[in-house]
Specification:
The protein contains 16 helices and 20 strands. With 538 residues, it is an alpha/beta fold. It folds into 3 domains: 4-225, 3-Layer(aba) Sandwich (Rossmann fold); 231-319; 331-537, Rossmann fold (3-Layer(aba) Sandwich), CATH 3.40.50. Strand 1 and strand 2 form a beta hairpin. The chain is flat and about 125 Å long. Residues 251-264 have a biased composition (Basic and acidic residues). Residues 251-273 are annotated as: Disordered. Keywords: ATP-binding, Nucleotide-binding, Repeat. GO terms for molecular function: ATP binding; ATP hydrolysis activity.
Length: 538
């Protein structure tokens, strides 16, 4: 099976920002999941392996052909008029086969077909297994959803049968059914697979996990669960090493201070004894110098031991991962059990003259601190329903009744905050009665300290923007009793997903979350599942 060998690879952006410096590793055959925080360089690394970027130094050797599917839609707007057949790379072959069927037996036609006489059967098989049975080959790309585009891109790569397949967040924009079809297709892929993902179900199907950490690749054999256990064990070990090193440093400092105090006491006693003994000055001077040299040597020994202990502490602290956990208590968000939060009756909505929901409309009751997952195929109207419930859209028919209490809607764009203000300024706007001390404490709980407090929201990373939105929404005045979340884990790294889970587990109100991430839904303790399909909510 093919392998990927990266040797002393270095890469910088045009502004001289260094991404990799002498990176070396080997990806063996089989299935490897690549994880790291957003901004660590995962996507850049895949582009370097695929040959889309050129390294400043070092190189990449791939044993065999490479297929690559990026995270964003791999087809530019300029190519929007291209068809499914164009993307699948079979348009010339299909044209040649049609020409043969029409009686054209020229050499050019046979050359175009090559060995791909069964291409139509193969591509139809790939499209069918990815849920694209009704997709015609002449369909323009601009008419496809994001999930359909990703599935077509994957089908194109699988049709080419590469030895090595590189995928960047392939389950983004896919609903539950499409995800399971992708899992099955990748299970059957016989080549070497390297996948960037925060989808824990997909990562759980890998043979190993590769973590990009502080510019180096570290491999963990076994399942994703074994990876998380290994990382947690390493964290506990590093914390223990830090505590031991801190204790040793304190001990060495204390012993050095005690040694200095004893030396000073001996020097004072010796001086009195010399004076009382009436020794000649030359003898007394020598005794004094000898005592000073002895004290200096002892002090030098202790100083070296202190330096060694300090170095050991520095090494231990460098091995310690940043504490990225969020620990919260949100008593103001509590909603009593059984209390009515929202009642919707007969909701209907038209999009371009088409009824999105069934004729009898959508009914929805939310009571108490319910944790509700709203699932269903892409395009069913889940996001539209959330926007109607939030009051952002008015239904064509039906009505929504809200209880007293604030509703907060977190869209996929995370656009609730003032982009030109800092997180602290935004929090002050959401909760004006908070004291400065309390505001700083809340921001620290959400890991905003130091320089991050001075940056405008627009300059924050995706994970930081999520935390900024959460700290403002969850501590708003009045506190929200109902949260509406639309695909909150899309485009987040694993650390940010865990932080979102911590925040929602601390939240005591009701929420409705649209998500296809089963691991996420399980982690946040969903109690009720609703499915919207074919205009019906069940």
């Amino acid at each position: 099976m093919s392998s990927i060998v990266v040797s002393t690879l270095s890469f910088s952006w045009p502004d001289d920002t260094r991404v990799f410096d002498g990176l070396s590793f080997t990806v063996p055959g089989g299935r490897t999941g690549l994880v790291a925080p957003n901004g660590a360089g995962k996507s850049t690394l895949l582009k370097l392996i695929a040959g889309e970027y050129r390294p400043a130094a070092g190189g990449v050797v791939v044993d065999g052909t490479v297929g690559y599917l990026p995270q964003t839609q791999p087809f530019s707007p300029l190519a929007a008029e291209r068809t499914v057949a164009d993307v699948l790379g079979v348009a010339p072959i299909i044209t040649a086969l049609d020409a043969l069927a029409g009686g054209d037996f020229s050499e050019e036609v046979f050359t175009a077909v090559g060995d791909d006489w069964d291409v139509e059967d193969r591509l139809r098989g790939q499209l069918d297994r990815l849920g694209l049975t009704d997709l015609t080959l002449d369909r323009p790309l601009r008419t496809l959803s994001g999930g359909e585009v990703m599935s077509v891109g994957l089908a194109a790569q699988l049709l080419r049968r590469p030895d090595v397949l590189l995928l960047d967040e392939p389950t983004n924009n896919l609903d539950v059914d499409a995800r399971h079809r992708l899992y099955a297709a990748l299970d059957d892929f016989a080549g070497t697979l390297l996948v960037i993902s925060h989808d824990r179900v997909l990562l759980g199907r890998m043979d190993r996990i590769a973590e990009l950490h502080r510019g180096e690749i570290v491999f963990y054999g076994g399942t994703f669960t074994e990876y998380t256990s290994a990382v947690e064990a390493a964290r506990r070990s590093a914390e223990s090493d830090v505590r031991s090193a801190e204790q040793l440093l304190k001990q060495e400092k204390r012993q050095m201070q005690q040694s200095r105090e004893r030396a000073a006491k001996r020097s004072s006693t010796a001086a009195r004894n010399v004076k009382d003994a009436g020794l000649p000055k030359i003898v007394a001077g020598k005794l004094k110098r000898d005592a000073q040299e002895s004290a200096a040597k002892s002090d030098d020994v202790h100083a070296k031991r202190v330096d060694h202990a300090r170095t050991r502490l520095d090494h231990a602290e460098r091995a310690l991962r940043d504490d990225d956990a969020i620990v919260l208590d949100l008593p103001d968000t509590e909603v009593p059990a059984g209390r009515g939060v929202l009642i919707a009756r007969g909701l209907r909505f038209e999009v371009d003259g088409r009824e999105l929901f069934a004729d009898n409309g959508i009914d929805l009751d939310i009571r108490g601190p319910e944790r509700i997952a709203l699932t269903g195929p892409n395009g069913a109207g889940k996001s539209t329903l959330l926007r109607i419930v939030n009051g952002e859209l008015r239904p064509t028919h039906g009505d929504v009744q809200w209880a007293d209490g604030r509703i907060a809607y977190l869209s996929q764009r995370l656009d609730l905050l003032y982009q030109d203000r800092t997180v602290a300024d935004n929090l002050a706007a959401f909760a004006p009665r908070l004291t400065h001390t309390r505001r700083m404490h809340l921001l620290a709980q959400f890991l905003f300290r130091g320089d991050a407090l001075q940056l405008p929201v627009a300059a924050l990373s995706g994970g930081e923007r999520l935390r900024a939105t959460l700290v403002c929404v969850l501590n708003a005045e009045p506190a929200p009793q109902l949260l509406l979340l639309d695909e909150p884990t899309n485009n987040l790294d694993l650390v940010s997903v865990r932080q979102m889970e911590s925040a929602l587990n601390a939240y005591r109100g009701a929420f409705v979350v649209v998500s296809h991430d089963e691991g996420f839904l399980e982690a946040i303790g969903v109690q009720r599942r609703l499915r919207l399909a074919d205009g019906v909510l069940t």
